[in-house]
Amino acid sequence: MIPSSLEKTIQIDGHIGAVLAGLVSDARSLIDYARVECQNHRFTYNEPMSILSIAETIADLVIDFGENKKNRKTEMARPYGVSLLIAGVDESGAGLYQTDP
User: Fold this and answer.
1) What are phi and psi of 91, to 5 degrees?
2) 17 Cβ contact partners less than 8 Å away, ≥ 6 residues apart
3) Are 8 and 21 in contact, with CB atoms under 8 Å apart?
4) pTM
5) For residue 26, which phi and psi values (nearest 5 degrees)?
6) Phi, psi of 96, rounded to the nearest 5 degrees
7) Is 69 or 46 the better-scoring residue by pLDDT?
8) Most buried among 13, 70, 82, 101, using CB within 10 Å?
9) What percent of the chain has pLDDT over 70?
């Protein structure tokens, strides 16, 4: 494996990982958000979050760009410039999902 390619392979949870193409800083903010959502789900329901649910959570955050939400602290300056492949294994088997900018 090429060491420089490791910065684009990220673990979200123990059973979910992601590979990115695009802006690494945008991917890190989405991955940090996904990690928090996984932890909240695990603490609330005492089970790991499904791959589909985390992919939908990330996609919902990306698609909410530009919407004026009153509870959002800051408005985003630009859309996310990253595409993610989210993969893992859960109770329904292996899964692979893609998010686009």
Assistant:
1) -65, -20
2) 9, 10, 11, 86, 87, 88
3) yes
4) 0.83
5) -65, -40
6) -140, 125
7) 46
8) 82
9) 83
Q: Token pair 């990982």 is at which residue?
A: 17
CA 15 to chain centre: 13
Which DSSP state fits 6?
A: G
CA distance 10 to 74: 26
Distance between CA 28 and CA 77 in Å, rounded?
17
Q: Give SS3 for 99.
A: strand
| CB-CB neighbours of 73 under 10 Å | 5
Instruction: Provide the pLDDT for residue 76.
Output: 64
Sorted by sequence, the CB contacts under 8 Å of residue 66 that are 6+ apart come out as 76, 79
Q: How many CA atoms lie within 13 A of 74 on its CB side?
A: 3
Regarding beta strands 9-13 and 16-22, do their DSSP bridges make them parallel or antiparallel, or are they unpaired?
Answer: antiparallel
